[in-house]
Design goal:
CATH architecture: Beta Barrel
Distance between the termini: 53 Å
CATH topology: OB fold (Dihydrolipoamide Acetyltransferase, E2P)
Shape: globular
Radius of gyration: 18 Å
Oligomer: single chain
Low-confidence stretches: none
Strand order of the largest sheet: 1-2-3-5-4
Strand content: over 45%
Number of helices: 0
Number of strands: 5
Order of helices and strands: EEEEE
Mean pLDDT: 90
């Protein structure tokens, strides 16, 4: 019986990319992005809107309140910031 070759796994993991609306831009180089998603409630068999706020690194404060923002997961920048604005 032949042995299988062991394949090396790619160590780079996929980063989450989320879209949302900027709800705060008062901090220096940081904006708060509200991301909404729909989940199906098994008990009621209907869809429910869930939202969460993420702090994202925004060099130069390019985004303003109400703008749509695309954020990408990255290495921790501070205590709360784990995302950066990409568009």
């Amino acid at each position: 019986m032949a042995t299988k070759k062991t394949e090396q796994k790619n160590t780079a993991s996929k980063k989450r990319v989320l879209e949302g609306v900027v709800v705060s831009d008062k901090m220096k180089d940081t904006c708060v992005v509200l991301v909404e998603r729909y989940i199906k409630a098994p008990k009621y068999e209907k869809y429910i809107k869930r939202s969460k706020k993420f702090k994202a690194d925004d060099k130069g404060n390019t985004k303003k309140i109400g703008d749509k923002a695309t954020i990408e997961e990255c290495a921790p920048i501070s205590k709360d910031k784990r995302f950066k604005v990409i568009a």
